Amino acid sequence: xxxxxxxxxxxxxxxxxxxxxxxxxxxxxxxxxxxxxxxxxxxxxxxxxxxxxxxxxxxxxxxxxxxxxxxxxxxxxxxxxxxxxxxxxxxxxxxxxxxxxxxxxxxxxxxxxxxxxxxxxxxxxxxxxxxxxxxxxxxxxxxxxxxxxxxxxxxxxxxxxxxxxxxxxxxxxxxxxxxxxxxxxxxxxxxxxxxxxxxxxxxxxxxxxxxxxxxxxxxxxxxxxxxxxxxxxxxxxxxxxxxxxxxxxxxxxxxxxxxxxxxxxxxxxxxxxxxxxxxxxxxxxxxxxxxxxxxxxxxxx
Length: 301
Fold this sequence. Notes:
Layout (H helix, E strand, L loop, with lengths): L5 H18 L3 E2 H7 L4 H11 L14 E3 L4 E5 L12 H18 L4 H17 L12 H13 L1 E9 L4 E15 L2 E8 L4 E6 L3 E9 L9 E12 L3 H8 L9 E8 H11 L3 E3 L3 H16 L3
Antiparallel strand pairs: 1-3, 2-3, 4-5, 4-8, 5-6, 6-7, 9-10, 9-11
């Protein structure tokens, strides 16, 4: 039997309190605490929580009535909780999603509980007539492998599906970070094939194989092993830009100094976010950004 955490033990006790108190009315608070192996202060806290439980609606007519101010405990209005409850479509969907999140968070731990969650999920899906199902995030294993590669500084070989070319290619990459943008998760990595930094949508990565430790940082193109600090001004779309550039804090003025390892990466991101972000002071970078933007615009003329 797995050892539950304190919150789980508290929930389990409260579930046991209702049937126990229904057959042990006017039991003393001290005796009740001894019966459940907790202090009187702890049992009083859980009885207070129990008094706020009941059926949806949560008016005084649906809540459990618990009285213990006199030092003796009585419980009323608990009978409705013994009645079978018909779950709505929304309630079933919410339970399924919550159970799936709980199962994914276990990550192989407590297999007995995972099996029980699977059985309950299957039963709830049947109650919905199959119209509600909860599928695990297909990228969980991929993200776990990529995070391991980032932590251990190992290069990996990935099978990547490019939707623009509608073809699958094998890439050798050196993972840097995983970021989120517009509801999608991306791997930012140095691609040895492209000889530059690229972003790969995680849900389009199929196969990952480790290529061993990265002995030295790739130094092709504009990448450096030491960071270059660039002063920037963010004037709009602050949240998306901060997430894309990895800015943790941005003051009201919108000015930030960003450490970068690749001018190519910075130029692509500034052009993509234009005109909501601007590089300050560094005329060399500003000139390259202007030229890149001009080349991009020329493609549409």
